[in-house]
Design brief:
There is one protein chain. The protein is α/β, with parallel strands linked by helices. The protein has 11 helices and 8 strands. Bound molecules: adenosine-5'-diphosphate and magnesium ion (MG). Adenosine-5'-diphosphate binds next to helix 1, strand 7 and helix 8.
Length: 253
């Protein structure tokens, strides 16, 4: 079982979006038995992206010991399993997250963590064997990513790489080379900034299911393929899809 924490120094860089789509891709595209854990206690961000509203039993309860971890796990229509956090405002000691996760049985456990270096983020990182760093291509985010990378190295975690999110290609953005030099970690996937993410979140679905054949869905699936060692072959665009893209290009000229 591989346990991977999705972490960042700065908030809002796309951890939850990537965790949700990575887990959905592993389940739906690559048929891996995968569990998504929302370790953002009391925020339930992953639930919001998945349209999941059953908070009767959540990770909070499993950590408190009022249910076992299997009772807090749900199976979603994608086939992926999901352990939500609850929206209840309660103080919980997440220290024993690692022990609870060790009881699970799956190919992949993906942990969506809190941002930064607080207790919640630390224990999420500690509960995983592998770490995927998420950052956007700007100095504040990369500077904070570097702090988390240092922490992950001190915890002797295996850093899979950086998923570079919300890339627009504007000149002012840091380049992949600059980010790799600053962090001494490889960028394994570039994910563009794309309004389809906002549309899919509004529809409460992972973008890989809401719009499986758009560019950002391809990039999300490529990330899952790289992590799992599987092959993802990008489908060829149909005649109509190509015509539409050419039309769009001409309109932009
Ligand atoms: P985090 O979990 O790191 O706080 P989220 O995944 O919640 O970040 O994303 C923060 C916001 O950024 C959300 O509103 C989401 O819609 C948006 N977002 C994330 N990734 C992208 C992307 N590639 N393109 C456009 N918007 C994105
Ligand atoms: Mg989040």
């Amino acid at each position: 079982m591989r346990t991977i924490a999705i972490v960042s120094g700065k908030g809002g860089v796309g951890k939850t979006t990537i965790a949700v789509n990575l887990c959905a891709s592993l389940s739906k595209v690559f048929n891996k038995n995968s569990i998504l854990i929302d370790a953002n206690l009391n925020k339930a961000d992953a639930s919001l992206q998945l349209g999941f509203t059953d908070y009767s039993l959540a990770l909070n309860d499993a950590i408190k010991g009022s249910c076992n971890i299997f009772e807090s796990m749900y199976t979603l229509p994608t086939g992926m399993k999901f352990i939500p956090s609850s929206l209840r405002d309660e103080k919980i000691n997440i220290k024993n997250l690692k022990g609870k996760i060790r009881k699970l049985n799956a190919d992949y456990v993906i942990i969506d963590s809190a941002s930064g270096m607080g207790k919640e983020a630390m224990f999420a990182m500690n509960a995983a064997d592998e770490i995927l760093i998420v950052t956007t291509p700007d100095i504040p985010a990369v500077k904070d990513a570097l702090r988390v990378i240092t922490l992950a190295k001190n915890l002797r975690k295996n850093i899979i790489g950086i998923a570079l999110n919300k890339v627009t290609g504007e000149k002012y953005e840091l380049s992949v080379k600059e980010i790799e030099m600053m962090c001494d970690v490889q960028v394994i996937q570039i994910i563009p900034e794309d309004v389809k993410i906002n549309e899919s979140i509004a529809k409460e679905m992972p973008v890989i299911l809401y719009n499986p054949n758009c560019d950002i869905s391809f990039e999300m699936k490529k990330l899952a393929a790289k992590i799992s060692g599987e092959t993802f072959v990008q489908p060829k665009l149909s005649f109509f899809q190509r015509v539409f893209k050419i039309d769009l290009f001409l309109t932009l000229l």
